């Protein structure tokens, strides 16, 4: 087994995929206000920029940029996940190993992170984020999905309103 090391770059821009433990749950969209508040509270204590983001029922994708002298995205994700979990009523299935560690069964323990290297790389990941609800069959066009930074990109003139869909 390979010993995976995270790429910790001060002020870096990273693409993340973060999943719920139950891939059939709808907690993220059903509790979108709580998720947004979890992000806001974390950003107050540990600033970061959300460059692009999409929230689907059971996972999310985000591109985050850290401050110039900061490389600690792990703390940010821990705080976001903890705040969200604490805001939910208990009752989810919890494995013995999670119960023994005092954990909830809301999130997958790990998340996927990828360092973005340049503007082209960044743009490809932004497109992936905005097309994700279409890819998963939730909507036919990116504009139809309410939990996405796509709408902000349209307001800023970066995309036409009819971009991204069939």
How would you describe the overall organization of this protein?
There is one protein chain. With 166 residues, the protein is an alpha+beta fold. Helix content is 36%, strand content 15%. The chain contains 6 helices and 4 strands. The chain has a 4-stranded antiparallel beta sheet with strand order 2-3-1-4, covered by helices on one side. Strand 2 and strand 3 form a beta hairpin. The longest helix has 17 residues. It is globular. It starts with 12 loop residues before the first strand and ends in an 11-residue tail after the last helix. The mean pLDDT is 91.
Query: Largest sheet at a glance?
Result: 4 strands, antiparallel
Shape: globular
Helix content: 25-40%
Intertermini distance: 41 Å
Question: Approximately what portion of the residues adopt beta-strand conformation?
Answer: 15-25%
| Biggest β-sheet: strands ordered side by side in the sheet | 2-3-1-4
SSE order? EHHEEHHEHH
Which structural class fits the helix and strand makeup?
A: alpha+beta
Tally of DSSP helical segments: 6
Q: How many distinct beta strands?
A: 4
Round the Cα radius of gyration to an integer and report it: 16 Å
The overall pLDDT average reads 91
Report the uncertain regions: none
Set down the secondary structure blueprint.
Blueprint: E1 13-19, H1 27-30, H2 32-45, E2 49-55, E3 59-65, H3 73-86, H4 96-100, E4 112-115, H5 119-135, H6 150-155
Antiparallel strand pairs: 1-3, 1-4, 2-3
């Amino acid at each position: 087994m390979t010993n995976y090391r995270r790429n910790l770059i001060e002020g870096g821009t990273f693409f993340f995929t973060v999943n719920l433990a139950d891939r059939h749950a709808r907690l993220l969209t059903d509790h979108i206000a709580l998720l947004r508040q979890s992000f806001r509270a974390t950003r107050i204590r540990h600033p970061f920029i959300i460059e692009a983001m999409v929230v689907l029922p059971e996972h999310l994708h985000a591109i985050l940029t850290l401050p110039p002298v900061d490389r600690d995205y792990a703390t940010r994700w821990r705080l976001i996940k903890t705040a969200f979990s604490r805001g939910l009523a208990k009752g989810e299935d919890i494995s013995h190993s999670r119960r023994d560690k005092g954990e909830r069964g809301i999130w997958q323990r790990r998340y996927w992170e990828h360092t973005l290297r340049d503007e082209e790389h960044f743009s490809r990941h932004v497109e992936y984020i905005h097309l994700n609800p279409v890819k998963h069959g939730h909507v036919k066009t990116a504009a139809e999905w309410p939990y996405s930074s796509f709408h902000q990109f349209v307001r800023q003139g970066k995309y036409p309103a009819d971009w991204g869909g069939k």
